[in-house]
Fold:
Amino acid sequence: MISRLEVENFYSIREAQSLDLRIAENVPEVSGRFGAVFPGSRERTPKVVSIFGANASGKSTVLRAVAFLAWFVQSSFQLPPDAPQPCESFNDTEASKMPTRLSIHFGAPYDLLEPRLEECANYVYEVVFRNDRGKPRAVQSESLRYWPAQGGKPVRVFAREDNGQVRFSKGFGLSGYKQVLTKVRTNASLISTLAQFDHGPSLLLQRMAARIISNIFLEKIDLLESNVVRFYADNPAMVEALNREIARIDLGIKSMSVLPGTSGPVAQFEHEGLATPMPIHLESHGTRLFIRIFPLVMRALSDGGVAVVDELDLAIHPAVLPEIVRWFYDPVRNPSSAQLWMSCHNASLLDSLVKEEIYFCEKDSLGRTRVYGLQDIQAVRRTDNFYQKYLGGVYGAVPQVG
Structure:
């Protein structure tokens, strides 16, 4: 699970912002909503991270940071050698010369060479990009560290410096890979580079990053309906899972079937009272959105990954949204403590959340995003009406009208 995210000089976030999801030890468990950072850890984080705020307040920027880090670890080696990094710094003159820093804290096996799930540790991966006006954004530093079980200072797994030098521990297993280090480009991660040469620990970290599944990267990704239908056609078990849900949550549909078509598979929907099945293009926008998002959520639940969903509430009925959120609390549906990170405008969802799950984004007069959690606000009680107080402006992060 992700336990902390730090973002600095990235899109609308100029000053360093931190989402520390760790929950105090004296906070009681609430209906399966919290999970251990890794098996056996005493540190807990929420399984649902919801981000509220006005339009253009930076909610998507927070999610974009998570998705970008996952992409950078997995796939940045695929960039052409001189290609710029697909991200931006804050848009003012001073920030254009300042570094961009992203870091993410997570649980992973203590031994990356012979990983065992019962022996894990807290890790932090950090990358810093140098911003030189007129030049492609380049890696200034990249590092991976973990905290030993007995406590104390973090232990370096590897640290890559601005001059290209890489320092590493014995546990990273770079014996025999030193020649590869000379091939690490300034626009690619060390991990994605080493993975091309079948370096075991890097392949493990790459697979872990692949468990972050998102509908946002630089912008929100509008998943092509034809690709989604093709995914269902290739995964009959996902169709069965979908049909179990769409009848239960009352989308007005009895079932979906995927059939061969002249230009590829087609989806059809059987409705109560209608004589013939309906093609997907005649279904409601909300139904079609649910069909697109469902595989993303289910993959995270089955793999114990992280679903990063921008505007999950868009066109989904307010009664259905809490049901999707509850899937992450269910130990049967979510046996491996998958996380859901989502941006949301539908304030009614606040009635279904606890304060450790709620975060806000707001911009100042200069367009800079500030991120904070409801648990960071003093005197917030669990019995408070979060919905009413948020819309009343008590917590901030609401549109200023007039």
